[in-house]
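One-letter codes give the sequence; the fold follows as tokens. Both lines appear below.
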Amino acid sequence: MATVTGNPNPAAGESPIFIDASTLRSVLPYRSLINHLQTSLPSATSVIQSPIRHHHQTSSSSTLLLMPAWSLSPTTIPYTGVKLVTVNPNNSALNLPGVHASYVLFNSVTGQTLASIDGTELTVRRTACISAVASHYLSNVNSQVLLSVGAGSLAPHLIKAHLTTRPSINHVMIWNRTSKRSKHLVNELRKEIGIANMKIEVCEDIELGVRMADIVSCATSSETPVVMGRWLKAGAHLDLVGSYKPTMRECDDEAVMRGRVFVDGEAAVVEAGELVGAFERGVLKKDEIEGDLVQLIKNDKKIVRKDDNEITVFVSVGSAVFDLLTAQLAYESVIRV
């Protein structure tokens, strides 16, 4: 584990600790975070307050996001947290991640700063694990083929989190608008995953890839659909995590119409372009959303997958609640060491 600087239990006037990306990778393995979210979310949603994230357009192509959350029950979750995120999609041309973030964790009773956390690593891990939690309830238990649409910084985390939830997957395909990035990610995953009988390859034809896939996981910044509903095979699960603004859109209306649609939380209904556009065009009504992540975790028998042939769609825009719970696990894991 990387060295954690600062005092994990700072007294008045002392500096908070800094938890870097390397430490997060150590204390937030996918299985641990998936389990933490599954066990914590049902009760946390009633005690954690989080307004809709602040969006600020800082240039024609970049965005600043502010995501605060605070606990109303210090005895169960004694934290307040704020994540600051910059989104610069054009960074791909500079060989840099498009998203950078910092997270600050406070004691909710005293207001004291406890930790400054690498928000970029925190974000990709919690986003991937949220998708994996949803997949646990919505994808077929015998899913074997996973297609990653997009090969950016989030893609490897989504792939590894989905593999954690669905160990039956033995074939991973990666599609990206530029195949160079797909090839690079394939090579990295082959070295890292190293699972016998696991086939990891570049997908050159996205239509063919979608038609083959049991799980299609999308993490792009596209403003036009890249996944068409007519391509989805019976029983497929479509995971949409790239769209966080109404102008963004990773799938077409047919995908939304063919599938039973679930969301990570209420913000998805007003932020995700796939849903906002579908409401405006009259192809989906808000009351036709089947349920959210907490309802899935509570295992509401009325909304989980009904059979092996139905198509399911999960739309995730992220939440400050997820961030706070992830920061909680990271911080408490560090101070226990």
